[in-house]
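Hi there, hope your week has been kind to you so far. Thanks so much in advance, here it is:
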Amino acid sequence: MELFSIFLNPGFWFSLIRSSTPLIFAGMAALIASRSGITNMAIEGSMTLGALAAVVASWYFQNAWLGLLAAVLVGVTMALFLAYFKLKMMADEILVAIALNLFATGASIFILFLLTGDKSNSSALNSVVLPTVSFAFLNNIPFIGQVINGQNILVYIAFISTFILNYFLFKTPMGLRIRSVGGNEHAAESVGVYVHKTKYIGLAISGMFAGLGGAFMSLGYMSLFTRGMVAGRGFIAIAAANVGGRSPIPTMFSAMLFGFFDNLGNNLQQFKVINEFVFMIPYVATILMFAYSSYRRMTEKKRLNKKILASQKAE
């Protein structure tokens, strides 16, 4: 009964939305890259360097919005590096992404140590965080008002940008070009689509979302940069995008499902559950959702093959 009471607490759902936000940003980054025909496994590193860039720029300029801009620029730069090595140098995208992630891990600690003399966190830097937003009309709505009101501004931006990306992908000419390049680049090229240019654009958008996710981690979710703060969210987001069928709105709900398990794990600590088990929950959920997604795709493929065979026999 005590465990069930967690779900009746608006604070649980408030935290759920908050913890889902970086996964939503990263999920959008993963799906737009995948739609472009490139797997962006460097999202983890982009978020890490983006989180650090946000804190450093926010501290240096004493302006959180410039910190956000710095994070986006770092994310875009990382994604363009991946695109350059993949498209121009013909390197394996997975190996390039691994190299970028390792670089981001080492570079973030090195830069942090240069600026603060500390390798663990940026508490020595008096950075400015992004504001929270409250809507007066929600104050009179019980439970829902407590869940939605008072969130960091990037939380609302994450949900709004999901619908914007959905419109962009499925309702605009550029979105059509990105999907066509990711689906069959040779067919797209035959009708005049500039394949490499389109992939660069798709990866740049992916980097922008990764940067936003990193900025939220250090200027919204927390008020500083800490070593290892991204904690695999970039990889979980790739799973979320796959489970969501590489479409923005289903990916958003998929990211929220992963956020649910993450938040549930955090709340289970009050019931004296073993810490190692708590930390394991989001990653086990990732594996299970990946398995479910793969099973669903295999089932759909078998069903389609049966229909094709049936139609051929009928002829």
Notes: Residues 268 and 278 are 7 Å apart (CA to CA).
